[in-house]
Structures are given as structure tokens and as C-alpha cells.
Specification:
The strands form 3 sheets. The protein has a 5-stranded antiparallel sheet with strand order 6-8-9-10-7, covered by helices on one side. It has a 4-stranded parallel sheet with strand order 2-1-3-4, with no helix packed on it. The protein has a two-stranded parallel ribbon with strand order 5-11. Helix content is 26%, strand content 36%. 22% of the residues are buried. The chain is flat, with a radius of gyration of 22 Å. It is α/β, with parallel strands linked by helices and 236 residues long.
Length: 236
């Protein structure tokens, strides 16, 4: 796993923080330890190493895909050690996920204007229909419209998190966007596993997906294909 380390300012440190980190690195050499830089904001685990209980450090820009630890004292490091040991044991005994044709999974999200702005920053798509309320109103939409790909990304989230789940790889996605989505809309994305083809090392699952708003209207729908490795999935 990739383990990020971020220190506080150290203005009132009560213990040798670097020594505690060195102990972890020595005990778990199989993991990659990195320090906080503009290029290392996403890690499996973040260790926010504080010198005292004041915790004068921001974690707003850190993304932990598994867990974030705020460490105030040397004894707090024991929780990290226990977690890493447990993760190794779970990984060694992890069973394949059983899938059935017809399985479904869903997730729900309420979109906000902040989501639109953040997506525009991430992708560079500052189209006026999405971020300019006056422009959107003038051309018949009334208010800014959520990017279609942002709405459709909920289907990818469902597939990556729930069905098929961890380890699946998106191969292609054919989407139709039927009704505009606006800030404040509550969208439920649902996928269903409808067919499977078997290759030597993996399965290819075909999933039908749709996104509905709070009025139960279909706003987007599509067909996706996911690669599912045989060492992670089993088909009933």
C-alpha cells in the first residue's frame, strides 16, 4: 500500500516523531511510504503526525482511499501497526467475490453547484451552459446544467465500489443523456449485471446502467463492459 506522511509544524512537539515513523518503515518494508507533496495527495493510508493534541495541520487536501490516522502521541502508532497487520491477514485470506447474472447495485448523490465547479476545474470544461447561470437561463435551461459525464460517472462509481466491485476495470461505456440534471437534483445510479463472457484470465461483464432523478425520471442510461480478473471474481 501507499502510505502518506504529513507532519504538523512541530512547534510544540512532545516526542520524536521521525523516530516513530522510522519504526513503522522498518516494520513494514513491503509498503511504500511517501511524504506530503503536491503530487502525493492521494494515498491508501495517510498518517497525519502531530507533535501534540493541538493538531495544527490541515488535512483538507489529503485523500485516503482506505483510512486516515491522526497521531498525537507515540501510543497512537500502535493503532497503525494493528491496522496494517490486520490488512495483511485479510489480504492473505481474501476470498473471491461471487457474482450472479441479474445482480444489481445502486448509489445516490445530490449534486451541488460546487460539484459542477470542481468538475470544471478538474477537466477544464468551463462551458457556459454549466457555470454561467445567465447564459444557461438565456438558452432555455433556466440554470446551470450538471456535466453529463459527471452524472454518468455515478455508474462508474457503483461498478467500482459495489458491482462488480474492487478490482474491476472499465473497458468501455456507451451513454445516452436524456434529461438535464441541475444543482439540487438527487440522482440514483443503478447497474445490473446482464451477461458475462469468459476469457482465459478474466471475465468480461456487460452491465446495464441508468440514472434517475428524484422524480423517478431516467436522466441517463448506458451499457458498460467491465474486465473482472478470475483471481478476484467467480461466477455462479
Amino acid at each position: 500500500m501507499k502510505i502518506g506522511i504529513k507532519y504538523c509544524g512541530g512547534c510544540n512537539s512532545r516526542y520524536d516523531r521521525a523516530r516513530e515513523i522510522k519504526k513503522l518503515v522498518k516494520q513494514f518494508p513491503q509498503h511504500t511510504f511517501v511524504y506530503d507533496t503536491p503530487d502525493t495527495k492521494i494515498c491508501d493510508i495517510w498518517l497525519v503526525v502531530c507533535g501534540c493534541v493541538a493538531c495544527c495541520v490541515s488535512t483538507d487536501d489529503l485523500i485516503a482511499t482506505k483510512k486516515m490516522f491522526i497521531l498525537y502521541l507515540p501510543r497512537d502508532f500502535t493503532t497503525v501497526v494493528a491496522y496494517l497487520k490486520q490488512s495483511e491477514e485479510t489480504s492473505q485470506t481474501q476470498q473471491k467475490k461471487l457474482l450472479h447474472l441479474g445482480d444489481t447495485a445502486s448509489m445516490t448523490k445530490k449534486f451541488t453547484i460546487e460539484d459542477i465547479i470542481n468538475f470544471a476545474k478538474l477537466t477544464g470544461d468551463y462551458g457556459k451552459i454549466h457555470i454561467d447561470a445567465e447564459f444557461a437561463a438565456h438558452y432555455g435551461f433556466g440554470r446551470p446544467v450538471v456535466h453529463g459525464i459527471l452524472t454518468g460517472s455515478l455508474l462508474s462509481s457503483v461498478m467500482g465500489m459495489y458491482l462488480p466491485g474492487d478490482g474491476t476495470i472499465l473497458m468501455d461505456q456507451n451513454m445516452r443523456f436524456l434529461i438535464p440534471v441541475y444543482p439540487g437534483d438527487i440522482i440514483t445510479a443503478t447497474v445490473m449485471l446482464r451477461s458475462i463472457k469468459e476469457n482465459k484470465r478474466f471475465y468480461i461483464g456487460e452491465l446495464a446502467g441508468c440514472c434517475k432523478n428524484q422524480k423517478d425520471e431516467i436522466v441517463a442510461e448506458g451499457i458498460c463492459h467491465q474486465m473482472m480478473m478470475k483471481n478476484l471474481f467467480i461466477i455462479d
